[in-house]
Amino acid sequence: MPYVHIELLEGRTDEQKQALMRDVVDAVVKNANVSKESVHVILNEISKQHLTKNGEFIGEKA
Length: 62
Description:
Elements: E1 3-9, H1 14-32, E2 40-46, E3 52-53, E4 56-57
Parallel strand pairs: 1-2
Antiparallel strand pairs: 3-4
Protein name: 4-oxalocrotonate tautomerase
Organism: Trichococcus patagoniensis
InterPro entries: 4-OT-like_dom, Tautomerase/MIF_sf
């Protein structure tokens, strides 16, 4: 039972996120020889206000 974790910055539409998850499921089914029903995708959105780069807060610049 594959579990795929995706982390990305907030700001994408629901349609974009759903399309991404569908494509990920299709890729796992194709390459891992598993059924579509067994694939779980967990998408976590990261707030731009909770992001630093090289130790510096970048907030809305991300």
